[in-house]
Design a protein that fits this description.
646 residues; six-stranded mixed beta sheet; 17-stranded antiparallel beta sheet; mainly beta; globular; Ubiquitin-like (UB roll)
């Protein structure tokens, strides 16, 4: 449906006065973009053709004449490029990125060849002038000696006056057939962002013309095409007027969704993703968003929409979706290492369409020397409404750390709802039980029930390597259960992350902060370890042993706490497409009491990291050093994993 008409640019020189000046103006040729051919009209009798930029044959034969060239002696010259445009620096910037002189700067050649290369580049410079709205500008250049086998190419732009947009109109080659309830397509180019008075930059003009066609496609005319464009260059006013002629074609409304026979997902799943209401005027943007959502599910190798002929007089056009299924099962794994756990191996299996409704089941098995875990997570999308999913997870865990020895099983299930593309909320019921041995104590059985409620905001658009945006996670979870005795507590957690590009997305400042508390517990040892707070290690305060930041006993065993704060900052520099460096600073502390003053006695760690970027995310290698090294702390820590630290 997104057909793009070929743009034929007609340039009319609005001439004022008479005599030699008028004749000189009529003879000038003007174009919006190099290489486009268009009639030039100056009065009813004058027609000409604007040729694409080319080097005359005699210039090639006499390359370098007038610039001090000498016969080719076979010597190869390297050269530097010095481009000057003090009145309009953007011209020099474009020239230094796109001209032949710039692109071939590392290729030495004979002087005659370099003179020819300069001549071609000056033609490109004239095209750059016009494309940026400088229709009376000049560009000049020459070669000068800069050493025995070195030359310097000097190019100077004299842009002259800047032309601006004048009038911009949209005319119709046929009648509009929509009813009075439909929105009227644009009649002026100012309605699509091309305002009178702005610089007559070719790319901006052509982009506005393209938006005219898109506007018709989104307002009930899916087959509208641009029949032609006309541009009037008025040298007396130094303006560029534009006129776009559109053939609207028949008005249409979006109809029902038709899925092919044998589709791997059921019709209710496809309907849940639908972005339009049957009967509304055709909107190509909504249809494109729908196709994008289908692609993002990972269930299809290709997705295509084929509008069918209208059903009847109401103008409804059914939409046939053609789907090519992708493999539904994946098995994989990864190898990790850090100084907390040593080497580790993680395997996983995933099915992305378990019952034909796009529901996803994933099983993970991470194995470390001191930690073994089997987890399963399940998501059933679009439950009862298109913005709501069923989520469930469960697992078995055995962990033998300095803080505790834990063997447990857990199960949680609930609903997640998408309030906006950035906001999600969820509520779950959770149960966990098992045995727990704290340092210096006997093993104790425990059982607890909880109702965690979470609200999350994410505008980053990337899970493993965000470069801009914000994340915010808020959790409140009441728990009841028995450990040493009965307990009733409320666990709260607030975490924020921000990613700020520093000039470009190759240099990013990443910030994080966390605050958490356990309300209702007089002592952290009165509740199971799953409810306590621990800090230290690769995901929190790097440079310190796993869980070691916070209260400890006389043997330096971590005890956990009921309150926690963490802060972190990283400067991430991606210096090539595949590699990057990170400098980071982490700080945090866990406290024994909720009433303890936050941010006091914090421990800090710093270090450097290396990133290798892959298709699925960056591979992380961090070396961290404790800034407040305690008697039992190692002098450094190493972390290897997939994805950024946060």
């Amino acid at each position: 449906m997104n057909r793009r008409a070929t743009l034929c640019l007609t340039v009319m020189l609005a001439l004022t006065g008479c005599g030699p000046l008028a004749q000189e103006q009529a003879a000038e040729q003007a174009s919006l973009r190099p290489g486009l051919t268009a009639p030039v009209a100056a009065g009813p009798a004058l027609h000409a053709t604007i040729p694409a930029p080319a080097i005359p044959a005699d210039l090639k034969a006499r390359a370098g004449q007038g610039t001090g060239a000498r016969p080719d002696d076979g010597q190869k010259y390297g050269y530097t490029l010095d481009c000057e445009s003090p009145e309009a620096p953007e011209l020099a910037e474009i020239f230094e990125k796109t001209s032949r002189l710039a692109l071939m700067k590392d290729e030495p050649a004979s002087r005659a060849t370099l003179e020819q290369r300069l001549a071609v580049s000056l033609g490109e410079g004239r095209n750059i002038l016009q494309s940026q709205g400088y229709y009376e500008g000049r560009v000049e250049g020459h070669l000068t000696a800069a050493g025995p086998d070195k030359l310097k190419a000097v190019v100077t732009f004299a842009p002259g006056p800047l032309y601006r947009i004048g009038a911009g109109r949209v005319t119709l080659a046929g009648p509009l057939t929509g009813d009075s309830q439909t929105q009227v397509p644009p009649q002026f180019l100012s309605e699509v962002g091309l305002e009178p008075g702005q610089p007559a930059v070719a790319d901006q003009v052509l982009a506005a013309v393209s938006r005219v066609e898109e506007a018709f496609h989104n307002l009930g005319y899916p087959e509208a095409t641009i029949d032609g464009t006309k541009y009037i260059l008025d040298r007396s006013k130094r303006t560029l007027d534009a006129e776009v002629q559109v053939s609207p074609q028949p008005f249409a409304r979006m109809g029902r969704l038709e899925a092919p026979d044998g589709a791997t997902v059921d019709q209710t799943y496809l309907e849940a993703l639908r972005t339009w209401e049957p009967g509304q005027p055709w909107n190509q943007e909504l249809l494109d968003n729908y196709l994008s959502a289908l692609r993002q599910t990972g269930l299809f190798q290709s997705v295509e929409a084929l509008p069918a002929p209208a059903d009847g007089a109401d103008g409804l056009r059914p939409i046939l979706i053609k789907l090519a299924a992708a493999p539904e099962r994946t098995i994989g794994g990864q190898v990790s290492y850090d100084t907390d756990f040593g080497p580790g191996l993680t395997g996983y299996w995933e099915h992305r369409n378990l019952t034909g409704h796009g529901d996803r089941l994933r099983v993970d098995l991470p194995l470390w020397q001191d930690l073994q875990e089997l987890t399963a997570s399940y998501r059933y999308p679009y439950f009862l409404r298109p913005d709501q999913d069923i989520i469930a997870k469960g697992g078995l865990l055995h962990e033998d750390s300095d803080a505790y020895v834990l063997t447990s099983g857990s199960l949680a299930a609930g609903l997640e709802r998408r309030l906006t593309p950035q906001w999600r909320v969820s509520a779950m019921g959770a149960v966990e039980g098992g045995s727990l041995k704290d340092p210096g104590q006997d093993s104790k059985d425990f059982m607890m029930l909880g109702l965690p409620v979470t609200a999350a905001y994410d505008s980053t658009g990337s899970l493993l390597d965000p470069t801009r945006g914000v994340r915010l996670i808020m959790l409140a979870a009441p728990y009841t259960g028995r450990f040493h005795e009965d307990f009733n507590v409320i666990r709260t957690r607030l975490e924020g992350q921000a990613f700020i590009p520093l000039g470009s997305e190759r240099l990013v400042l990443a910030l994080r902060g966390l605050w958490a508390s356990l309300w209702g517990a007089d002592n952290s040892q009165d509740v199971p370890s799953a409810l306590r707070f621990y800090s230290g290690g690769g995901g929190s305060v790097r440079g310190y042993d796993y869980q070691s930041v916070g209260p400890r006993n006389a043997q330096f065993d971590p005890l956990g706490g009921v309150s926690q704060v963490e802060v972190g900052a990283e400067t991430r520099w991606r210096f090539t497409e595949d590699m990057g460096l990170v400098a980071f600073l982490d700080g945090g502390m866990v406290y024994e009491n909720v009433d303890d003053k936050l941010f006091q006695d914090m421990l800090w760690g710093t270090g450097l990291g290396f990133r290798y970027y892959t298709a699925i995310g960056p591979v992380r290698a961090d070396v961290a050093f404790p800034l407040q090294r305690r008697d039992d702390d190692d002098s450094w820590q190493l972390y290897l994993s997939l994805g950024q630290s946060f």
